[in-house]
């Protein structure tokens, strides 16, 4: 191993190890019931972000200096059964796609950590927030650098869980918790689609390594190792996974719901980072899209629908964070269209630019509203609204319908609840009633005692 | 056959039995919990010593040193092999942590004596291979829950009906098998009877009603002890796997898979925590059966890993729920309780064990689930998809239950609801195992793979089960062939 390889290995390991160590420290201290102080938690978080960011920058500088475009860092097999050719390979890749996304993740996580340190000061859930933050950060770093589809799934799951728990951060109120549950449910479905896609790819190619899946060349030069029909199958599954993770149509509902957490941190997490993870996956497997024309069309159509819906909704929302969330969706939709059209570098630049801009907007949003208010007070009237050309061209009835469509968030959550969740729940409730009746008949009495027991008497006076 | 350096198995079975006799003489007072914990701890240490001794022997199977029982019955009764070596400490640990998490107020309802007898029965079962002793032990082990239901004046009809069928099928099946050649097609009918018995004991639909009924009417502790060691899966492994042809096993795998998805869906619509737990356990334990019945090396390895994971994680999940129930009575999932502030340790452990049970990354179940799905896809891609779907449903259930119990409202209590010392120790032990097994999975996976291979080898010796090996060989080579193309 040359000195350059050794340097890459050490720096690469540091990038991945740093968030893992942060997670271990925060997790262990919580586990043994000795939570760290606010100052220690904050310092550790800052150090972890820096120890990920600086080695990543070091790798970037070395790659640019020596004209290297692909640096794999192999940490060996986590699990290995050689006879069955089964291995869970811990491989991390630094290339033209992963490094920008990694730097973006580190910088935005650093910004979130720094802001949260102040406004969660002396909050009861300070330690809890940073523990979930560590899971999120770790997941983002692993997902960004994943060199195998299994490793990407590992990071993907960590991001999913931490997102749901962060959305439910104010967990003494019902609404954030319900929102967290919805985010988790959508993420689980998208995780399932991703896992099935991963296994199918593994099954078709015998490879879990992205290099093997793309048969040759490093990103974005690879070509797919599967044929058109296989690509359509795998790609469709991946598209479901991407739609769930990036809040594309019809799963957009979770993004505005996620904004209720400890803002602006959560807003940055979801509006600028988490929402791009899905499209990052699409970029990573973009050579597969090239194999199937139908798949490309599907990607483009999904992007257009999502962008259009996002644009409509963002214009009529009454809450600035929700409005920004839908504005994010518009941009993510456009990024998906770019990926579908094969404009990979443009999509990557768009991700970086959009994430940074959106972070600034989300940070500025609360003070902007205050400034806006002050300005109107000083003027003594509302600020003048400029009417767009569309408002004159579109008929009134259509405008009203579009307004309702946008204001009710495209009826997407309602439709999902009505057409997916309710039939599922009704079916299983029917099974439950059937079981109840059967056990009643066998028992010759009422068999379900839990119906008669006074459940959850947890109020102060009755707790035992 | 190798020989252990000490009769660990017989001693570990005798210790809880003697403990039960002592409990009978002494009376089950509130202070008896400490004694029971000590007995269960000693038993657990004995099973761990047996595992260490066995691992050091580096053999597939071993029998006792100074076999007392063998001298009496002139037969090799207790034999440990790679399949059961890990199950014995797992079984003992399940009993230890359940007893450790029992509040003193529960002693009038949760019988320590019967818990110790059940432990002896479970350990004896896991120490037995296919024989009449195993059949009798499996039959006898159905008695303690029945006696508890009777003592609590609860209706036992559902339990009795299912267990009577289980015992009947088991006895008739094994008796029939004793009269025919197990390597001929004449073994198909007794094989089917034994399969039926194993499915009943595992709670595979439509034979699962007894399980929900037991959780409904029995004490939570006893129900946990009867179901979490997955004795039904053990019956499948010992009695069905060696004689059932591949097509029959695949049919059972499909049935188990339907159970996994169905139970995952049912868990989502339950309004009470115990019932939710019951269906979650049913779903995850069915996945173990799916892997066992795929009989490919990868699928079997996944099932054996998942078995350990389900045993650890769902026992942890169950005892957390039981601890909460012991403090606030039965827990409704219809509304929010907001108990996080009162019991943060339980909340963390609830989440950890719940996520471990669904195979979340960095927990003990993750690699098991990956292997299982990988193995399932090799047989039928749709099976792999259904396994993923079941896991997704269970994941939704776990977080839903967490949110309902620990969040959603601001709840104040004037009395302390924190975990007691013994509860904390139990939680810490399980946490270390769950995270340790998840972060360093290779030793466990390698051992389970070796066990799976031996199981496959045993099947190969039987002509009517041979075709599956050929099939698995084909599937095993399929990816590499594809690569060559």
From TrEMBL, chain A:
Bilayer topology: Multi-pass membrane protein
Predominant location category: membrane
GO terms classed as biological process: ATP synthesis coupled electron transport; electron transport coupled proton transport
A single Gene Ontology CC term: membrane
Domain NADH-Ubiquinone oxidoreductase (complex I) chain 5 N-terminal: 81-130
Molecular function, one GO term: NADH dehydrogenase activity
Signal peptide: none
E.C. numbers: 1.6.5.11
Protein's UniProt name: NADH-quinone oxidoreductase subunit L
Native organism taxonomy: Bacteria, Pseudomonadati, Planctomycetota, Planctomycetia, Planctomycetales
Automatic annotation (TrEMBL), chain B:
Broad class of enzyme this protein falls into: oxidoreductase
One MF term in the entry's GO annotations: NADH dehydrogenase (ubiquinone) activity
Keyword Membrane: yes
Main location: membrane
Record keywords: Membrane, Oxidoreductase, Transmembrane, Transmembrane helix
Keyword Hydrolase applies: no
BP term (GO), one: ATP synthesis coupled electron transport
Topology relative to the membrane: Multi-pass membrane protein
Transmembrane segments: 6-25, 37-57, 77-98, 161-180, 186-211, 223-241, 247-269, 276-295, 301-324, 345-367, 379-403, 424-440
CC per GO annotation: endomembrane system; membrane
Domain NADH:quinone oxidoreductase/Mrp antiporter transmembrane as annotated: residue spans: 182-391
Subcellular location: Endomembrane system; Membrane
Pfam family of the protein (one): Proton_antipo_M
UniProt EC number: 1.6.5.-
PANTHER family tied to this protein: NADH-UBIQUINONE OXIDOREDUCTASE CHAIN 4 (PTHR43507:SF1)
Name used for this protein in its record: NAD(P)H-quinone oxidoreductase chain 4 1
Species: Rubinisphaera italica
